[in-house]
Amino acid sequence: MAAPYDLSRHLPRVAGLFPLPQVMARAAAKVRDPDASIEDLAAILVLDPSLVSTVIRLSNSPCFNVRTPSATLVEAIQRVGLREIMRIVSCCIAEAVYRRELRHYRIPPEVFWESGIAAALLAETLARTCGLPADEAYLAGLMREIGMVVIDHALSAEGDAAQWDCTVPVRDWERSACGHEHPEIGAALLRQWGFPDGVCVAVAGQGDAVATAADLTAVLRLTNLVLETSGCDFSLPLRPDAAVGSALAGLGLDFEQLAAAHTDARERFRALRAEFGTAGQR
Prior knowledge:
Elements lengths: L10 H7 L2 H13 L5 H8 L3 H11 L13 H8 L1 H17 L10 H22 L3 H9 L4 H11 L12 H9 L3 H12 L3 H9 L10 H15 L11 H10 L3 H21 L7
C-alpha cells in the first residue's frame, strides 16, 4: 500500500477548478428558503451566462410540454417550476464537472456523467417513497462519486501512474493507491462547496457496510447496490439479491416499490440523456 497522500492539499485546488457546484449549493439553499422568490434564484444562476442559456433551452424541450417557449430565465422558472429548474441546473453542472476523463480510474467522461445522473434520479425516487428529503437525495446521488475527481487530480499532481484495473473493488484500489476512499474525500469537497449537511453525511457514509437508520445514507447505499447490478445506464434488468433485500428491509420497502422506483428513474434518465445529447455514445 502506498503512503497516504495529504489530500487536504488538493481539495482547495479541485474546489477552485469547478466553481459551478458552489452555484448549485447556493441555488439549492435558496429553493429550500420559503421566503425566497423566483427572482432570488435567478440572481444566483444568472452569474454564469452559459448555464442560463442551457437552462432556458432545456426548459423549452418537449420534456416539459410548455406551450409558449421561455425567452428569459425568470420565465423558464415560472413555467417549469423551481424544483424542475433545479434538476436542470444540477444536470448542467454535473455535465461540466463530470465530462472529463478520469485517467487513473479509466472511466470515460460520458459514463461518469451518466452514473451521476442515474444515481440522482433513483435516489430521489426512493427517498420520496420513504418520506425522506427527495431534493437532498437527488444531490447526494448526483455527487456520490465526486471524490474520484479529487483522487484522480491528486494522483496526477503527485506524478503517480497508478490506475484502477477494475479487477478489485474501487475503494480497495483507492486505499492502496492513495490511502483514502472517494466517499470521505467527496464529502469533504462538498462541505467546502457549501452543500447541505445531510448530503455530505450521505455521501460520506455510502460505503459503510451496515445501515443503522432509515435515512439518506441508507437510500444512497441501496442506490449503489441497484446500479451495480442494473448498470449505471439502467441497461440491465433489476435483479433481487440478499444485499438488496437487506437494504430494502432497512428502509421499510419491498421489491415491488423498488421496481416502480427503478422504472420511473430509468424513463427519466433516458429522457435526460437524449436532451443532453449522450444517447448512442456508449
